Amino acid sequence: MIKKLTSIQNKVKILLLAIACSIFSLNAFAGIIPSDTNVCVGSPITFQSTTTGTYSWTFPSGNPVTTSTSANPTIFWTTPGSYTVTLKVNNVTTGTATINVTFCAGFTADSTSVCANNCTDNYPKMSTACVTFTDISSGAPTSWQWIFPGVPPYPFITTVQNPRVCYCQPGSWDVTLNTNGPNGPHDTTYHNFIQAGNCPIANFSYTDLHHHDTICVGKCLDFYDQSIDLPTGWKWSFSAGATFSPVSDSLIQNPTNVCYNAPGTFQVYLIDSNTYGFDTSQVQTIVVTPCAQPSANFTIPHDTICVGECVTLTDNSTQGNGAILERDWSMPGGSPVIVDTNQVPACLQYGYPGRYQITLRDSNAFGADTVIHYVQVNPLPNITLFSTPESIIGDTITVLNGTCVNITPGGDNVQGEYFWSKILSPGVSAPDTITLNCHDTTGADIANCTYITACPTQTTCYYIITDWTNGCSNKDSICIKVVQSFDIFVPSAFSPNGDGYNDILYVRGEGIKTMDFAVYNRFGQKVFESTRQDEGWDGYYNGEFANSGVFDWYVKATLFNGKAIVQKGTTTLIR
Fold it and tell me: How far apart, in whole angstroms, are the C-alpha atoms of residue 354 and residue 535?
């Protein structure tokens, strides 16, 4: 209470003795600094000297002393009047101060922060909206008038000496007290004295199969605050026998892994609080029994994995007093998709980052139990290999024997190291030389290089693996196909009869970087076109078999050595 009054009134002296007075500015006198010069009867004043030395203070009619040698004495007066305070330092008068003491109206309250949403004293589980005010005025008043702007009928006025009123409307409210008696009328107003607002309404839930009040011995529960009106503090009460670690978890918003390892009846409730007060939830009772029903449980080796990484689930359920009749797995977002919910896949994977829920429900003749675990799937770093002088991405580049190629990694989310390796074409046992930008080396494994220069003499694939700070890694590869010469041609005939031999008309050859290929019938109609060497004509035109005959073709291509080629000719379609 005293701390609250100090903040509102900014008058330490008034609140320490609970005597309210008007607020005065701080005055300084030559050699003396009093904490105030206009005070109420009984209000303490602290004096300070502006110089140092041996002090001799004189306080006419002061209490508890009239003289003092302290550096900072505190004095009050019990009789109204004007008093002159004198200070000598080293036996030399250094200053005086005049203190005016009067009777004042004043009061205290049993609370200055209240719950406006508990407007009566009839709900003890929540802090009340009601406040008891106590008159502590000086001057022996005989009548009182209180004015409460924040109390209905807004304002509420009463002449009771020590009233109790209820604040049902949120806000910061003034309180005014007018007194009268043999020493005259006095009044005081404490501005923004009462802070009224909505206290939280406490409520919570916990994880269980269907939120039953009866669980099995050994079951662990997670508790979730579901309170409204913005609580800022939580205190959970668990009956003895409920175990959790650390104990401080009872002060967090959502305590988890609260385990019940012995049979019995246990109560749980939650106290929520904020600036205005507190509320206590309804008590929930949890009955723990030695279960005949199964106890569902499974483990995950790692609850944080990478996209595409395998998760192996181990079923650790116990059957209770009867065999498990039904076991249902649910893992939305996982692959493969579960068809038989009684079976868990040997390799569970996730194709996208996110947090995924895995649920197992076991049941027998006596009941059922469910357990839920979560797995966090982190994204992979994005890594792509580029080759120069040919500017292609991934797949295969064709070069003449003796050509060197720079291979450079690119992408984003790459914050770790690069790990390089290579695989030669089948039947080649001697390792090729891979030249690094920093030094030359030979061998199959090359680590942490920003690029490599490859001069293969045989078709070779180069691989890179990179890791990320989240523990995930990714890889890419580029293959360099080594040929002795570049050429291009189109077969003179093909037979699309479905026998698997020469069914498609392709552009053939080595070292083709780009191409435009078109086939025309004898009427000059274009029956096929393609820009990819691996796409050929299957003998269809407008969805139907083309007739046997001679067709013209035209190809315009650019080779990897930069040479441009334009060819045309004919091919015979044979049915």
Answer: 38
Torsional sign, CA 355, 223, 360, 299: positive
In DSSP notation, 61-93 reads T-BS-SEE--SS-EEB-SS-EEEEEEEEETTEE
Q: Are 216 and 288 in contact (CB under 8 A)?
A: yes
Question: Which tokens go with 151?
Answer: 């109390």
pLDDT (0 to 100) of residue 520: 97
Enter the DSSP assignment of 161: S
Residue type, 246: P
Indicate the domain borders of the chain: 23-102, 107-197, 204-289, 300-378, 382-483, 487-573
The CATH number of the domain covering residues in 382-483: 2.60.40.10
Q: Exposed, middle or buried by CB within 10 Å (0-12, 13-18, 19+), for 38?
A: middle
Within 10 A of 286 (CB to CB), how many other CB atoms are there?
Answer: 22
Q: How many other C-beta atoms are found inside a 10 Å radius of the C-beta of residue 326?
A: 12
Residue 247, SS3 per DSSP: helix
Q: Which two tokens stand for residue 255?
A: 């305590």
Question: In terms of pLDDT, which residue wins out, 229 or 2?
Answer: 229
Looking at CATH, the fold of the domain delimited by 487-573 is given as: Immunoglobulin-like (2.60.40)
- Asked if 23-102 and 107-197 have one fold, the answer is yes
Q: What is the pLDDT of residues 119-136, one digit of tens each?
A: 877 788 889 999 999 999
In the CATH hierarchy, which fold is given to the domain comprising 107-197?
Immunoglobulin-like (2.60.40)
Residues 512 and 496: their CA atoms lie apart, in Å, by: 25
Q: Which amino acid is at 565?
A: I
The string of pLDDT tens digits covering residues 374-408 is 999 998 877 777 777 554 444 778 888 777 887 77
- Percentage of the chain modeled with pLDDT above 90: 43
- Give the H/E segment covering residue 7: helix 2-9
Tell me the β-bridge partners of 56.
88
In whole angstroms, give the CA distance from residue 174 to residue 195: 9
361/372 Cα distance (integer angstroms): 9
Tell me the residue type at 440: D
Distance CA 463, CA 418 (A): 10
Q: How far is CA 164 from CA 17, 109, 380, in A?
A: 21, 9, 66
pTM equals 0.44
* Nearest-angstrom CA–CA distance, 261 and 281: 25
User: Distance of alpha carbon 379 from its chain centroid, rounded?
Assistant: 18
Query: Torsion-angle region of residue 460: left (phi > 0), alpha (psi -120 to 50) or beta?
Result: beta
Q: Among 2.60.40.10, 1.10.1200.10, 3.40.30.10, 1.10.150.20, name the CATH number for the domain at 23-102.
A: 2.60.40.10
Greatest pairwise CA separation for the chain in angstroms: 133
